[in-house]
Each structure stands twice: as C-alpha cells, then as structure tokens.
Amino acid sequence: MKNKFSHRKILVMAFDVAVLLIAAAFSAYWVHEVFPVSISTDATVRSSVLYAAITFLCIYIGGEYKKAWKLISKRDYLSCGVEVLIGTVLTGVVLHFWNIGNYGAINLSYFAFLGSTFIISVLGIIAIRFFAKRYFVFLINAGQEDVIKKALIVGAGNAGKILALEISNAKNSGNKDFYYSLVGFVDDDPNKINEKINGYYVIGTSFDIKEICKKYHIEVIFFAIPSCPSDKKAEILEACAETNCEVKVVPEISKLISGKSILNQTTKVNVEDLLGREPVKLDTTALSSFIAGKTCMVTGGGGSIGSELCRQIMLYKPRKLVIVDIYENNAYDIQQELIMNGMANAENLTVLIASVRDREKMESIFKTYKPDLVFHAAAHKHVPLMETSPEEAVKNNIFGTYNVADLSDIYGVKRFVLVSTDKAVNPTNVMGATKRFCEMIVQNFSRTKKNTEYVAVRFGNVLGSNGSVIPLFKKQIESGKPVTITHPDIIRYFMTIPEAVSLILTAGSMAHGGEIFVLDMGKPVKILTLAENLIKVYGKKPYEDVEIIFTGLRPGEKLYEELLMSEEGLQETANHKVFIGTQIEIDDATLNEGLKALKAVSDANNSEGVAEVLAEYVPTFHHKLN
C-alpha cells in the first residue's frame, strides 16, 4: 500500500514539474514573439528551471503531496493556486535582481511573462489534481459501486488503527458486507491532525464531523474510541447522528472478544450511548459483604430487571441463588446463561417456576431454601394492559408483594428489597397505584415486623427492558414502519438495566429498614428527541425516510414522571447516585382495611371496583378507568 502511494506521489510530482517547465518555456516564447525583446535560448532554459524549482518548492512546502488524491477538494485547488502565485512572485523577484537575460527588466514583457506563466501553471496543476482524483477514485470503486461505502473513523488510537487496517484488507475476505472506501480519521488530539496512519490521514476533529461527512459524501461512521468517557461519547455520537450517516460503534475494551476482528464486532449505536450517563461506581467491598455466602432469592428472576439482578448477584459469590418466575422460558434463559458463563452450577443455583400469588407454593419455597436476602422484582408493569385488567395488577403486584414480604419475616429473611417505580409517585394509572400500595406495605412492615428489614427502591424507565419504548422503536425503524410516539412533549427518566440493578444492590446493602431509596436518574429525556436520534444513527432521516406518528396519550399515561411525592424529602447517602425519601406514616388499620377491600373486588374481578378502592386507599391516586 505504501509503495503504491509513493509511486503515485512521484508521478504527480513529475507532472507538476513538467507543467511548470512548459508554462515558463511557452510564456518565454510567447513574450519573444509578441514583445520586441531579445531573449536567448540559454536565458529561457535558466529562467524556466528557476521558475519550476521555486514554485515546486512552494507547492511541496504547502503540503500538497501529503494529501490523498481522492480527498482533493475546492479548498485544495485554491491552496495550489496560492502556492503557485507565491512561487511566481518569488521567481519575479529573483529574476529582477539576478537579471537573467532580459527577464529582470521591470517592463510590460516582464509582467506578461510572469502573468502568462502563472495562469498556465495554475490551470495545469489543478487539472492534474482533478484528473488524478477522478482516476484514483475510479480505480478504487471500479466494479464495486454497489457494495462500497465511503467511511470515516472517529478516533485515531489503537482501535482506530486496527480498524483502518482491517478495512484495507477486507476485500481479501470475500465478504462484501465489509467493503468500505475509507476517507480518513477524525481525532481531537491536535498533534494528530494531518498525520498519516495506516495510509489514511487525520483530516479533522470531532467538531468537523458534520462538515467532513458533507464534503466527502460519507455514508458510514465508525466510532472507534472504546475508552471514551460517557458524556464525551454521547456528544460525539450526537454529532454523528446529525450527519444522517450510518453509525457503528467499537464496543468497550472489556467487551471486545480477543482474536476476533474488530470490524466484525462493531455494532449499531445503542440509545444508552446517546444518554451520556456516567458509569455507576460501586462499593464492591460493601456489596461483597452484603451478598457473599448468603442465600439470595430473586422473584421475577427471568425478567429484564430480575435477570440482571441474578447476573450481578452471582458476581459476589452467594452461597445459593434461588430464581423464582412464573414464565418458564425467561427462567430457563437466565439459568442457561449463568451456567454457560461459568457463574452457576447445581450447587449454587436453583430455578423454580412459581407465582408469587400462590401463598402456599411460596411458603414451601421459603421453608425449603430459607433465603437471607429477597429481591422482589416480580410484577405486572405494562401500564396500558393493567388499565384493562386492573384486578390482575392487584392480585399480582399487591398480594404477590404481601405474600413474599410477609413470608420473609416469618422465615427470618434478613432484608427484603422491593423493586418499585417512579409511576408510584402521584399515580395516574392502576399499575402505578398498585406499586405505591406495595411501598405502603413495605413501610408498614418495617414498623410492625421484627425479623426483616424492609426497603423499596424507586427508579424510572429502564432502557431495553421488556415492553420499554426503545426496542419498539428499533423494530419499527428496522421494518420500515413509522415510529409511534404518544405525545410530542412526553419526557421520561432513563437508565440502563445494569446501572439500575447496580444501584438496587447498593441501596439494599445500605438499608436499615423502612426507607424508600430514590435513584438519581439524571436529566429527563424527551422521547421525541430520543426517537429522532435513534432514526439518525440508523443512517435515515426523520420524517423523510422514517415517519413519526403521534398516537395520543394512552389511558393513565403522564407527560412526565416524578421520583418523589411532595410530602417526601430527600436525604443523601454515601453514594451520590442514591437518595432516601423521608418515611411517610402509614396507618396499620387503614392499610389492612384496604387489603381486605382490594381482596374482595379483585377476587370478584370487579374492574371498576378495583379502581375505586385504590383511589380510596392510595390518597395520591387520581384516575379515571377507561
């Protein structure tokens, strides 16, 4: 590759020198014919060589031979003109003082010679570059117009260098999916600008991405900075999204598979990348002390939150993990994953199919395995579905929570952690109201039960969780369907599943009983902006390539979610991402009355009655059943 480029450079240099010599010689001949001056052949040769040498030196110093010919632009043509002009002026000065033949006399023929030489040289030099660019691009793309895409690499570090080399060698693989015409790199290190790396130049910084993509007609951007901080990564990826190019990301270093091509490991941009959230810093010592050697139970262990709880719990070496889930497919998936990853075996993992609504079955499980820690993630959480089946939300969420929480105290569980939601705050839907009632149960039990510490952890939407909006958006975009959003102004808090679970474990480890832990969700995100950015990183244009349709707020849906109720205050903890809401007094007798009333209407499958009772016993619930 290097030799090939070197030959091309020498060839263009030779053409430039020839053009400069011809321009000077022709101008001398023209001046001799038009003006009454006598110029010797020797003087013409010397002046032509002088002009060619000085102007060539100016072009060389200007860096024209360091540029890749396929990247030549109007700006480069202009810089060539400026360099030829400087060379012409310097030649005129030397001719005047050296006085070669009659060239040095400042008269009309003097200016005619210099002017004619300049014009011919500029036209010739630019023509060489114009045709060189067309010729080289033609050779690169010949016969491959349908498969080659122009590409840009963001990041000229180790990952970027390897990626460039792999792109260069991709044709040898025979896989047309990886045919790219690499334009160059962008990198924010000023020392790397104009540096040549594996045959390609660093042609700008991340601030120039949009301009570079437009200028060179880039189709694919590779983000190749695996160790980039989250906030900076989000900033650069948003700039990439504005280009409407397809964007691919080199995974974090910890996720790269050794011995496998980086090009094969690039993935589409995840929405997590666009949020720019800082990684959660965990106190691994505290978590190890909290979990190691203990029997942990996770209800709803096959779900998106529950399965991640299982993964992270196993990192801290529990004596045994008991996974409880009603859906056997999910339970099987997490069981096999933990076994295949070498994290679990028959000794430290038990997977059980059971419903938290079944008190007798759950009691049998508690009696057999005697868990030390219980993480209660089992719940119905799809807002629209629970609006049409509110009695099922009550049976599963409220009475399922009651069963597991009550059995925890009976069988000596050290700590019970309820996974709650921001929808429990001033709920406008049945799901949120049932989760708020669950929080009330936990707060009541923390006062009335003696053996177990009860806590709840409240957070917002989790990216990629079952039923969340992001997987739906991706399916719609990939299938060419319109993206559907309920309202243009709707906003939500988001965090990643691993981040949410890390904070659940952290909150659980620092609990003393009765707290509602509130996780720092960062800045709220406008769903419309999220959808637009997601469409862009697929290399499509919102409203043109992918239509966005507003369907209207669904029953019980808010424009925005809250993490605290007005009567709750915030208390800081040792972890700056975790806060404690001030406890609200829960009247024991009123709570029990509510449980009896809800039991009666839910067993009778009385949907309207469920909503009415919830509104009576959850004071912040304002709802109209649809």
DSSP strand count: 22
Question: Count of helices?
Answer: 21
In one word, what is the shape?
elongated
CATH architecture descriptor of the largest domain = 3-Layer(aba) Sandwich
Class from helix and strand fractions: alpha/beta
The CATH C-level class name of the largest domain: Alpha Beta
Which parts are unreliable, with pLDDT below 50 for 5 consecutive residues or more? 1-5, 138-146
Q: What's the arrangement of strands in the largest beta sheet?
A: 10-9-8-11-12-13-18-22-21
Give the biggest sheet.
9 strands, mixed
Indicate how many domains the architecture comprises: 3
Q: How far apart are the termini?
A: 68 Å
Give the helix level as a range of percent.
Answer: 40-55%
CATH topology of the largest domain: Rossmann fold
Query: What integer value in Å does the Rg equal?
Result: 35 Å
Overall residue-averaged pLDDT value? 84
Superfamily (CATH H level) name of the largest domain:
NAD(P)-binding Rossmann-like Domain
Describe this structure in words.
The protein has 626 residues and is an alpha/beta fold. The chain folds into three domains: 2-141, no CATH class; 149-269, Rossmann fold (3-Layer(aba) Sandwich); 284-462 and 495-521 and 562-617, NAD(P)-binding Rossmann-like Domain (Rossmann fold, 3-Layer(aba) Sandwich). It is built from 21 helices and 22 strands. The strands form six sheets. It has a nine-stranded mixed β-sheet with strand order 10-9-8-11-12-13-18-22-21, with helices on both faces. The chain has a five-stranded mixed β-sheet with strand order 2-1-5-6-7, sandwiched between helices. Strands 3-4 form a two-stranded antiparallel ribbon. Helix 7 (230-241) links the parallel strand 5 and strand 6. It is elongated. The chain starts with a helix and ends in a 9-residue tail after the last helix.
